[in-house]
Every structure is written in structure tokens, then in C-alpha cells.
Specification:
This protein starts with a strand and ends with a helix. The longest helix is centred in the C-terminal third of the chain and has 19 residues. The radius of gyration is 19 Å and the shape is globular. It is α+β, with helices and mostly antiparallel strands and 188 residues long. The protein is built from five helices and nine strands; from the N terminus they run E-H-H-E-E-E-E-H-E-H-E-E-E-H. A hairpin with a 4-residue loop joins strand 3 and strand 4. 30% of the residues lie in helices and 26% in strands. Strands 1, 2, 3, 4, 5, 6, 7, 8 and 9 form a nine-stranded mixed β-sheet that branches.
Length: 188
């Protein structure tokens, strides 16, 4: 039985391995990745069968042009041996319900229109939006959770998610120096 739940911090490596398997190294070249890199997701969900992670999806805070908050869905991935069982659909439904619960006006994504149309996504209101970097314009899709949330949306889609905390070089060096000093005092 598959259950959908929030991703645990200890599952990050498993998620990354699943994404590598699903998309390969080209996933890092995608325009939508420019909106995610170095940032914390608004929400990270996994589909689990027992202790095995078989699917993943995340939501990211973005602006759909100036002063128009939205969420970006993706990447969505399902383990190859678990595809065609509705796991991806279940993850998308959970993500959209959670986006609505968080009072998001709209959700954007870059994906296959024929797959995502069943969830209410279309390119109808994304024609005046663009992503940082190359992408196929017809794959930029939006879904309004609040009617009119994407009316008049235009401009660059930009990241709003908080930056992931990474220590700067000075902090790392200071930590190493303290470690060396503490080792030296124990050796004496």
C-alpha cells in the first residue's frame, strides 16, 4: 500500500537518487531548476510503500511576474517499477490540496500538457510569463486555485523560496581551525 506524507530530512539522498533515475543529469540543466537551486521547498512530499520511497514531488515559492505569488510544482518522479499505478497522480492531488490549504492562488509547472490537464493545468494564462533559461513555451502550465489568480500575469517567473542555509567559507575554516586546536590540546 502506498502512503503519501511529508519527506523526512533523512530521506533527501533517497529522493535525489530517485530523481537521478527518473531524469538523469539533464534535470540540472532545466530552466525550472534555476528557480529551485539553493532554495528550500515550501513542501516536499513522498510516496512510500512500507519503508521504500517510490515517488516524490515538491512545491516551491515563486512569483509569476511582479508581485504575484504562486507555487512551482516539481519535479515529480515515480520509481520506474511503480509507474502506471496512479502514484504520480496521487502525489499531484496531494500537492494541490496542500497548496490550496496554504492559500496559494496558483500553481505553475513545466510539463506535459496532456498529462497535467487532468489536474486543471493549461497554458491558457501563462503565455506572457517566461522562465530564466531555455524551455519549451507550450510546456509552461498554470492552474488557478483561486479564480483569476493568473489574470494578467506577465513577466519573469522568479524564485521566492528561502535560501537553504549553507555556511560560508569563513565559518567552515573557523570550524576546522577549532577542530585542529582541540585535537592538538588532546595530543599534548
Amino acid at each position: 500500500m502506498v502512503t503519501v506524507r511529508k519527506e523526512r530530512p533523512t530521506e533527501a539522498a533517497t529522493r535525489e537518487a530517485l530523481l537521478d533515475l527518473a531524469y538523469g543529469p539533464t534535470r540540472f540543466t532545466k530552466a525550472s531548476e534555476r528557480l529551485r537551486e539553493g532554495r528550500l521547498p515550501e513542501l516536499a512530499l513522498v510516496a512510500a510503500e512500507g519503508r521504500r520511497i517510490v515517488g516524490t514531488v515538491r512545491l516551491w515559492q515563486v512569483s509569476a511576474g511582479p508581485d504575484r505569488p504562486a507555487l512551482l510544482l516539481g519535479p515529480l518522479a515515480v520509481a520506474p517499477d511503480r509507474r502506471k499505478r496512479g502514484i504520480g497522480s496521487t502525489l499531484v492531488h496531494h500537492a494541490l490540496r496542500e497548496a490550496e490549504r496554504r492559500h496559494a492562488g496558483a500553481v505553475l509547472l513545466v510539463g506535459d500538457a496532456s498529462y497535467y490537464a487532468r489536474f486543471g493545468f493549461s497554458s491558457e494564462k501563462t503565455g506572457a510569463l517566461w522562465l530564466p533559461g531555455p524551455y519549451e513555451r507550450h510546456r509552461l502550465l498554470g492552474h488557478e486555485l483561486k479564480p483569476g489568480a493568473l489574470d494578467g500575469a506577465r513577466g519573469l517567473i522568479s524564485a521566492r523560496s528561502p535560501l537553504a542555509h549553507r555556511p560560508d567559507l569563513a565559518t567552515l575554516v573557523a570550524g576546522l581551525a577549532r577542530s585542529d586546536n582541540s585535537l592538538a590540546s588532546h595530543a599534548a
